[in-house]
Amino acid sequence: MTTPTPPTPGRLRNGQLRAMVAKVLADASSTPMTPRVIAAQLGGRSSGAVGNALQTLADQGHAAVTATAPLTYQATATTAGVAAGAIVPAPPVTPRPRPNGTPAPTPPPPAPAPLTVPVSGPITRPNGAAYHPRTLSGMPDVTALRRLRDAGVPALMYGPPGTGKTSVIEASFPDLETVPGDGDTVVADFVGDYTKTDDGRYVFIYGPLIRAMRAGAVLFIDDATIIPPTVLAVVYPAMDGRRQIVIKANGGEIVTAAPGFYVVAGHNPGVHGAILSDALASRFSAQIMVSTDYDLAKELGIDPRAVKAARNLATQQAKGEIGWAPQLRELLAYQKIAAALGTDAAAGNLVGIAPEEDRDAVAAVVCAAFGTTVEPLALGARA
Description:
The longest helix is centred in the last third of the chain and has 15 residues, at 304-318. The chain contains 16 helices and 15 strands. The strands form six sheets. The protein has a five-stranded parallel β-sheet with strand order 8-11-14-7-15. A two-stranded antiparallel ribbon has the order 1-2. The protein is α/β, with parallel strands linked by helices.
């Protein structure tokens, strides 16, 4: 019998370099890396061989291309599993036999995962702004949304533009992947598309839906109801019991959602073209209205006269007498304009930004709140 020759030092078994590359990616899961950097960490391996291994990992969904100039890769939810091939597993432990055939005691069931801890105080959003939680079902809204995620209940946040839907979602979920919706949104904006690299190759760059699924992160579909329904349907299989999608543009690749994957969406009912279809509504079991917190506006130091006008207009809007009222976004803009140009200009701008059909009603309320005649901002005679 011929004894097999042991591998030459430095030579790797088939697939071992891929496992080693995957381990480097998994150990630095949040850091994009180039083939050259990974090759250096592997003791000076060929960057070309490492590049080929990375391309194979990306083709199989075990790595994600994050940039093309230079070409960089990052770990996905399945990279660590491939990296296990670079680690020698510990030998299995054989249980000792019990005397007289006594059965082994049944291990206790695992303890249930604790509910999300309630938050308190302002939360810093990615843009650095502070978000002040509001009450939802007797708890801070951020806590409530996180518990819905734990329970696997997709949430649809709806309300007029500027009420803070995006703010509460960004404050609730630090691991957010966002698709900004509009009438031109296409499937590639969700799943990704091919792009040409500097060396002339075409690589598939995964989109926010795929990144969120693989990382077990949150997908936020902003202005979901103005995205064409045929495009939005690409997300549905990932939200139901299948928790999978097929990337037809990438050779029919099948992607399965990792634990923690969650979908939340925003809907502006008053925006032209926004349609909450039955198919969309049925996917979002929790639908939460978001309106402006005018008490918070006062706490933020916004001119009480502007807050009073906005609150009165919101009351008229709720009665169906007008179609528009200033929200927190407009009140924050009022404060900035007042600091730059004065309160008269800021009050005039509240009137000027109102839709034409509501402008007279808005002007009457703003004039009453400020106790003076208010005109929309307009250029005058030459200075």
